[in-house]
From TrEMBL:
PANTHER family assigned to the protein according to its UniProt record, in alphabetical order: BCDNA.GH03377
Pfam families: GFO_IDH_MocA, GFO_IDH_MocA_C3
Record-level Gene Ontology MF annotations: nucleotide binding; oxidoreductase activity
Protein name, UniProt field: Oxidoreductase
Keywords noted in UniProt: Oxidoreductase
Keyword flag Oxidoreductase: yes
Keyword Oxidoreductase attached: yes
Species of the source: Nonomuraea aridisoli
Record lineage: Bacteria, Bacillati, Actinomycetota, Actinomycetes, Streptosporangiales
């Protein structure tokens, strides 16, 4: 009986999201093994690494030498720079959204991935939930006339996620990739999109889809709610089809994400949620604000 060796993964970042999701997920295995951690704050990297029996790397290049894949849990401006270097070093990439802080940096990552021929996968967390996949499966045979959606929470009002780039760029760049991905997949390919409002407070997206359907997305990280609210409603002649994350256990996503990333690395082939998908979502965000 042949046993596939776990994929050795290095983690870039040691902040809250790196500690609570990436490091724990990658270390739990069995498909992956956390081998090294690098962060600009050496003490933070060392704390995370020691918790999971990994090495605190002194430089990104040392981390690359200690792994076959690199996971990112850093601001998009840092991710885009280091992801290009990791791809050129021949490493598979587990990438956060947004791919970059702007379209040019996102394109640089996607281009580097393509040129190096490395595996890439986006951490669009909701896509790995069984409930999301069932909704998207049902949407394939649902004729949509129109749709509305929202992703709302109060994390920007204070706490660990109220970080510099989120407060500066707001919900469009942080939450927008999630809803645009779901609408682009469930309703149909988005042909045109425009944004109104202030992304730091509340932004509204209006989308026209290639199949003639229209949809809306409401985004805010600055409204006080008991819990985050993500909801997508599809309407058509058949009735309605609703996706709502209320009551879902988001921990169900991590084993799926880990297993699919490891399988892609071992097969040498990226899946649907590759860096190219991240670039597509960044292009939609750019189009929304330049119309």
């Amino acid at each position: 009986m042949t046993t596939t060796a776990p994929v050795e993964v290095g983690l870039i970042g040691a902040g809250p999201w790196a500690r609570t999701m990436h490091a724990r997920m990658l270390a739990e295995g069995p498909q992956t093994r956390l081998t090294a951690v690098w962060a600009r704050r050496a003490d933070a990297a060392r704390e995370v690494a020691e918790q999971y029996g990994a090495v605190a790397a002194a430089t990104p290049e040392e981390l690359f030498d200690r792994c076959e894949a690199v996971a990112f849990a850093v601001p998009p401006s840092v991710q885009s720079e280091l992801a290009v270097r990791a791809a050129k070093a021949g490493k598979a990439l587990l990438l956060e959204k947004p791919l970059g802080l702007d379209l040019a940096s996102a394109r640089a990552v996607a281009d580097a991935v393509e040129e190096a021929g490395v595996v890439s996968q986006m951490v669009l967390t909701k896509r790995y939930l069984p409930a999301t996949r069932e909704f998207l499966r049902q949407a394939e045979s649902f004729s949509v006339t129109g749709a509305r959606s929202c992703y709302l929470h109060g994390a920007f009002l204070g706490g660990e996620l109220a970080t510099g780039w989120r407060l500066e760029r707001g919900a469009l760049l942080d939450l927008g990739p999630h809803l645009l991905d779901l609408l682009d997949t469930a309703v149909g390919r988005i042909a045109r999109v425009r944004a109104t409002g202030d992304p730091r407070r509340w932004v509204e997206l209006s989308c026209e889809h290639e199949n003639g359907a229209v949809s809306q997305a409401s985004l805010s990280g600055s409204v006080r709610l008991p819990r985050a609210r993500t909801r997508v409603e599809l309407f058509g002649e058949e009735g309605e089809l609703v996706y709502d994350t209320a009551g879902l256990d988001h921990d169900e996503a991590w084993p799926v994400l880990r297993a699919e990333f490891a399988a892609a690395v071992r097969a040498g082939r990226s899946g649907e949620l590759s860096a190219a998908r991240g670039l597509r979502l960044q292009e939609l965000i750019e189009a929304a604000v330049t119309r």
